[in-house]
Amino acid sequence: MTDLQKYVDLTVEIITSDGRVIVGTLKGFDQTTNVILAGCHERIFSENEGVERVALGLYIIRGDNICLIGELDQERDASIDLSEIRAAPITDISRR
Amino acid sequence: MLVELKNGETFNGHLVNCDNWMNLTLREVIQTSPEGDRFWRLPECYIRGNTIKYLRVPDEIIEMVKEDAIRQRQAASGGNRGRK
Question: Gene3D superfamilies per the record (chain B) (predicted)?
Answer without folding.
Answer: 2.30.30.100
